[in-house]
Please model this.
Amino acid sequence: MLSDIEISRQHTCQPISQIASELGINPDELSLHGANKAKVSLAVTNRLANNKNAKLVIVTAVTPTPFGEGKTVTTIGLTQALNHNGHKTCACIRQPSMGPVFGTKGGAAGGGYAQVVPMEELNLHLTGDIHAVSSAHNLAAAALDARLFHETRLGAAAFTEQSGLAALNIDADNILWRRVVDHNERSLRQIKVGYGSFNGPIHGSGFDITAASELMAILALSRDLQDLRSRIGRLVLALNHQGEPITAEDLGVAGAMTVIMADAIEPTLMQTLSGDPCLIHAGPFANIAHGNSSIIADSIAAKLADFVVTEAGFGSDMGFEKFSNIKVRESGYTPSAAVVVVTLKALKANSGIESEQDINQPDSERLTAGFANLEWHINNVSQYGVPVVVAINRFPTDTDAELEWLIERIGQTKAFGCEISEAFAKGAEGAAKLADMVYRATEVGSEFKLLYQTADSLESKLMTLAEVGYGAASVSLSDKAKSQLAWLNEHNYGNLPICVAKTPMSISHDPDIKGIPTGFDLPITELRLNAGAGFVTALVGQVMTMPGLGLTPGYLNIDINDNGEIVGLA
Amino acid sequence: MLSDIEISRQHTCQPISQIASELGINPDELSLHGANKAKVSLAVTNRLANNKNAKLVIVTAVTPTPFGEGKTVTTIGLTQALNHNGHKTCACIRQPSMGPVFGTKGGAAGGGYAQVVPMEELNLHLTGDIHAVSSAHNLAAAALDARLFHETRLGAAAFTEQSGLAALNIDADNILWRRVVDHNERSLRQIKVGYGSFNGPIHGSGFDITAASELMAILALSRDLQDLRSRIGRLVLALNHQGEPITAEDLGVAGAMTVIMADAIEPTLMQTLSGDPCLIHAGPFANIAHGNSSIIADSIAAKLADFVVTEAGFGSDMGFEKFSNIKVRESGYTPSAAVVVVTLKALKANSGIESEQDINQPDSERLTAGFANLEWHINNVSQYGVPVVVAINRFPTDTDAELEWLIERIGQTKAFGCEISEAFAKGAEGAAKLADMVYRATEVGSEFKLLYQTADSLESKLMTLAEVGYGAASVSLSDKAKSQLAWLNEHNYGNLPICVAKTPMSISHDPDIKGIPTGFDLPITELRLNAGAGFVTALVGQVMTMPGLGLTPGYLNIDINDNGEIVGLA
Model:
């Protein structure tokens, strides 16, 4: 089979203006960025406000493994197949980060014959939204440090006299706003800034990957430009020497940050290999942020199509939980069905059984043990009142016997049904049966419900997430988290929803506990306020907000050839 | 008079596809980015290879002052007026950096009725080229530090065994590649990276503004994508423990960096307020890099128009010298005329005479003394064999008496002629006489000559630049510069041209010496190899490669209004 980029390059895309026109976007609502990408105006939702919303399908997965489960392949394949089956469908996915593209994971356009094309345009700059987030984020960091510098060198009184601005009295040891870059930059995780004769004071800082920026979460959760502006104003950047929050509004930088992100508010339209529309927008990671693409993209697609297919990062304990309790709570746009993606390999890897045997070979012991993980995710999604369809993403090495066993076992669960998907190898036709099953699931009617109410106390919300969300027996807070909890309650931030930052590699906080962890205590190490995004982030165990490059990173293979074409992008 | 952004917003732009069509660009050579911007393919120059090159006009200025001389206003106004006078003309300018936009300088689109529009699209992301430069630059930094990390933790032998790659033995104390961000970030000038338990080794680093990146210079000097690829491969990122250079090719990251910059190779077409074409591309600063927009943009414009107007940063000792000895040397595209921009205010400020009097008031003593600075720049440009036209950029407070005195004095110099320009207040018509004078100057015929030959030794080239370029009596090298000189000669880099990094605020290295400095010694503090850009940078005195935000930065005024429009961008 050809590589992803070969398939993408050999394909002749339709003009993106034609894709837009077929979807029902007016020419004056479209801003072309080359032949294959276009920004879509939020004016669409106003024009079509009276249209009924499309049925929303959310794609999630079992606990992820290093082998890749094919969630984006399934999201794109399902979109291709729903259109193939005669249902007008639009996919909504997140923009890929360049960190993984040049690191180890490679691109994030789907793969095989279920791809967004041209894949190199999706995987690299797209229409510049991630760059805009980085730039706005780092302007706030520069502004904060410049203010600290001037107030420190002049003293508060002289600063106010010379600048006409009130002194903020920033506590250099309580700067909450870090910096961002869209690369895997281990050496910038913890840095010290302000060295030199006139650049200080020296203090700690560090860089996160841009997908971890609170601005990325804000972009994904905002309803429009004015909402974006308000949220940016509420960002808490630092504490002053009295322990009170200093916001982007206080610093006077919220307007300029919004201006930098003004174009980023519009989703980007691209197409699948079958010419189906795909809106790409935002990209907060699901382990450290809320892990879902934007409310704006979904709301535009909802007015234009009959079905919207979107995906949530990592397993259902991660992205899907946040999709429900953060994104849907904010948007009110509830899903009609959920798809849980699974592979035979993923079940074996989730079995918790050590084995020397090639994971591509039949292994009923590991398969049976790993099945529990799938059942947990089916039950987890079901408790939100949404019908569950299991998509078995087939690999060439899969045996019919193991697939048949799996289908039979899924039949004994709460799942509405399951189908094998061969979207990777066969595109739309490979997912036609899955699309039919998903369609039937959306006809059943869902009764979506949230896990908790925002009016509940932060302690109660944490307990609910731990026990009902992950199956923990108890929750414990570090001393730091306890004092942060008190501060949050004092400052009236107790009514925000919770965004849990934890490893995605286990339902628990410990990546080594596979299958269905039970009876464990969930250790909350830190509670971080994200007043702009509108949630409190609970850090569980050790969570990394900046990846690193491995021994043989993906960039080693990437180059241009003699024709100036990109090669080696996986 | 309306503000720049008000003038820009009230203006109805022509579709950029129409501007392109009138210029002679085929639809398949154009990639739209919204309604007002389009990338132009390098295919134009191949298709029109047999066309005669347009006549090239280079706009420079007297020694700059804090008041602004209006070089971009004159460049754009002259372009508008040449077209107005019936000469098919295209402007070529650099992309503005967001640092000054949110710092103090404001935008860089020209001003008044001589602007590139929409000015906010030019001043913010444009089509993402600066973001691409930042991203490619910082990928190299991440790759270098990741390699250092893995080689350090494993040791060379185990590293090679596990990765299959030869160890580079990077000397952490000799990392030459810093990082970049397109903001004024004082606190990142000198930092230490690699803190934390598993992120090291700890070592020094720092950020420059993106315009100071060697990649920005490379973008401006490359002929095409393959040339870009070769130059990136030659970048020297660090030395190994034996003092030998480690290149981007050695690190295996040159291909991926090129891929990130692949779209940036195409200039962006915009329009002036009169609907004249303007190509925007690259933006190396003129104090720390070579200070000119791209060879590619000039070469495309040269095939499409009869006149190309471009500008060089700061005074003629800075950008124009580098335009000549670096850019024209590389491109072979010689100027037919040069314009030196001057204002009454600039001459008074360059007089070196301290005065309490308002600089807008008549002051014959300061004007007479400051005139010497203009005459120096006329002579400086003349020695390159190019006819010089002086453009007096008129301000509302200028008196007729002082303007008449100035015109008469210019008549006694080597200048071909001079005219008052009122492009700011009146657009094309305000610069019509200037355009006529420039046209006549280009009819004279120039005999362009370079100041030195690359085959000359580095010492000899430095001496020529100091004595002939700035009027210094002598040159002295610091001990550091001496040992760097020896290293460069040893490693066969002696045949590169020189790019001087010095203050632009004086012809000498001392910003406090105004007028015509003479008899001074030029102190070279450092010699830096820029093997990719293809020059050796000589640092003279203290040069800053990262600006800082002032007490009341421009961002304080910038916001969106209730209609979602940008306000406060100057």
About this structure: Chain B touches chain A through 80 residues (CB under 8 Å). The longest strand of chain B covers residues 521-530.
